[in-house]
Automatic annotation (TrEMBL):
Transmembrane segments: none
Domain of life: Bacteria
Name of the protein: Cyclic nucleotide-binding domain-containing protein
Annotated ranges, domain Cyclic nucleotide-binding: 19-137
Pfam (any one): DUF294_C
Length: 600
């Protein structure tokens, strides 16, 4: 690097690869000015595990480098890196020494750059800093550049700039309150009691009252409102407000000074007031689903919901709340179908299980449905789900409560002969419609059976080790632990499934036998085993990353998203996912140790 021309040539190469692509050329030229070119022959070591970092870190210009964990016997291959990849970036994430030994797999040309010159650039270029973090840990907060803020990033206090809320006493005659709504042009009015907020009367409430016969217009306005009011604070995210309104079917929410119904009312949040945060509006979609006149309308609304989810799927951090919204969509469509097809019979408890039971179904795959009840099920439901635009719709698994108890007893007491490994998704069972008493009885029965069969958890944990993540991505190929090479990343079987399976084991150990999201289960595991909480927190972040990529691919291609062609992933995507592989390996190694069973 003795001439300015060579410095610019190196800078041009770096500019093609992250994290350098996020930096100005002038800064790159200055970075390489003190650098040097190094050559290593095949099988020659570049750096050694546990050795203190040298002053230089490396960028591979050509050739390939393998990373080895030499603390194991025999040494274990952990990664393979090629042109544009870096060696030694973990120092910028706090690692005091080399995490692995690096060895040239072929003849290798490296650009050696001074770490002291590079570190200030990570502060100047935040996107470069996020990429470097991904070399050591799973990061779920990266997103496409130049995008607008998304609902999971916007606080209500930053969005709402409308007038002070309209209000009147809850004892005000309904006719008078309706006139106030009409004359003001507002969508909602706050009702008070003894000067404090009590409820919200919306134009939708008045329309429902009229549709029901409009009796006694002089009754107190408080009589016809939704009894389940939603109150939120200014620091509430728009996404959380949407989910809270969807939970109770509210047309509006009250913004109070601290989020409680007893504090000062500041604003009334209606669907139109949230519209600036969205292209479409998620609550409006749910309201239209609830009133859809036929299956064709439900199909259009389902497609509209999936398009909206994809549009707002800006980053892995958005996957969790969008999965919760998708669950509202799925539940609402199933409930509406039951009403349209006259399948809703007394005493039946309708449940989701598997991915849908865990609130993790973002694509157009039909939710897996189970029924606790003895009434026969019409074969038309799966056909109707397919007509609504769902893929892979299957008939519900229906049985009476006693039969469900027998099934779970068999899986727990005799897991090998009863092929428990095929039935693990039923341990994600969650009620979504109908009376829940039968479900509660079933859950209590399962909890008692688990307490009586201590060895079941060990066997279930052992089954989790059947699916391993790939070793690495190299160029445009996926390198499996077995040495197999393919151009397709089997995301579901090699990443999502082991995460969900392990989380289920720890959830059972914590005494929560049935449906919960994988993230919620990892949070429970962190509480159960606080000394290992870093493993569970990183696994939860990995789950968000994998769900994000599954949903984005599945919604774009109208598939399950179970398999992902590697060329669709950016370099940043690949690096974050590769960090996820390390997280899954740590989780599986800890699960296989069995020592944790003695601590629970």
């Amino acid at each position: 690097m003795q001439t300015a021309a060579i410095a610019y040539r190196v800078a041009d190469f770096l500019k093609q690869h992250p994290p350098f692509e996020f930096m100005d050329v002038a800064d790159l030229v200055a970075l390489v000015a003190r650098g040097r070119v190094k050559f290593h022959e095949a099988d020659e070591y570049i750096c050694w595990q546990s050795a203190p970092h040298a002053a230089l870190f490396y960028v591979i210009q050509q050739g390939s480098v393998s990373l080895w964990d030499e603390s194991a016997t025999p040494p274990v291959l952990r990664d393979i890196r090629g042109a544009g990849d870096c060696i030694g970036l973990e120092r910028f994430n706090g690692a005091p020494a080399n995490l692995f030994s690096a060895k040239a797999t072929s003849d290798v040309v490296l650009y050696a750059l001074y770490a002291a010159d590079f570190e200030p650039l990570l502060q100047r270029y935040p996107r470069a800093g996020k990429f470097v973090v991904a070399y050591s840990t799973v990061t779920a907060d990266y997103e496409a550049p130049g995008e607008r803020p998304y609902p999971h990033q916007i606080f209500l206090s930053d969005l709402l700039r409308d007038r002070a809320p309209l209000h009147c006493p809850g004892s005000t005659p309904l006719q008078v309150a309706a006139r106030l709504l009409h004359e003001s042009g507002a969508q909602a009015i706050a009702l008070t009691h003894a000067g404090a907020f009590a409820a919200i009367l919306t134009s939708g409430d008045v329309l429902k009252w009229v549709a029901a016969g409009a009796s006694n217009p002089r009754q107190p306005a408080l009589n016809i409102v939704n009894p389940e009011s939603v109150t939120v604070s200014p620091s509430t995210l728009v996404s959380d407000c949407v989910l809270a309104m969807a939970e109770v079917g509210a047309y509006a929410a009250a913004l109070t000074s601290d989020g409680s119904p007893h504090s000062a009312l500041q604003r009334i949040i209606t669907i139109p007031s949230l519209t600036p945060a969205f292209g479409d509006h998620p609550v409006a979609i749910l309201r239209e689903i609830a009133a859809a006149p036929n299956v064709a309308s439900l199909r259009a609304l389902n497609e509209r919901a999936r398009a909206w989810i994809l549009d707002n799927l800006s980053a892995p951090a958005a996957a969790d709340w969008l999965a919760a919204f998708s669950d509202f969509v799925n539940r609402s469509i199933v409930k509406r179908l039951l009403a349209l097809l006259h399948l809703d019979q007394a005493g039946q408890c309708w449940c989701f299980y598997g991915t849908a039971g865990r609130h993790e179904l973002l694509t157009s795959i039909a939710p897996s449905i189970a029924i606790i009840g003895t009434s026969p099920v019409s074969p038309s439901l799966e056909a109707a789900l397919a007509e609504c635009g769902y893929l892979s719709a299957e008939a519900p698994a229906a049985a009476g409560l006693d039969e469900w108890k027998d099934r779970f007893s068999g899986w727990i007491r005799d897991p090998i002969r009863r092929e428990m490994y095929r039935s693990r998704p039923f341990f994600d069972l969650r009620p979504v419609h109908g009376p829940e008493l039968a479900f509660n009885h079933l859950e209590s029965h399962i909890r008692a059976e688990l307490a009586a069969e201590a060895g079941f958890l060990q066997l279930l944990a052992n089954d989790c080790l059947a699916n391993l993540p790939p070793l690495t991505f190299f160029r445009d190929l996926v390198v499996e632990e077995s040495g197999e090479v393919t151009d397709t990343f089997r995301l579901e079987s090699s990443a999502l499934q082991p995460l969900a399976d392990v989380a289920r084991v720890f959830s059972l150990a914590a005494g929560h036998p049935l449906g919960a999201s994988t993230r919620t289960r990892f949070e429970a595991a962190a509480g159960l085993l606080p000394a290992q909480q870093s493993i569970f927190h990183e696994a939860a972040g990995t789950m968000s990353v994998m769900l994000f990529h599954q949903a984005r691919a599945g919604l774009r291609q109208r598939t399950s998203g179970a398999e992902l062609p590697l060329p669709l992933l950016s370099r940043h995507d690949r690096q974050v996912i590769k960090s996820g592989f390390r997280s899954i390996h740590k989780l599986l190694e800890f699960t296989a140790s069995w020592a944790w069973l003695e601590a629970v």
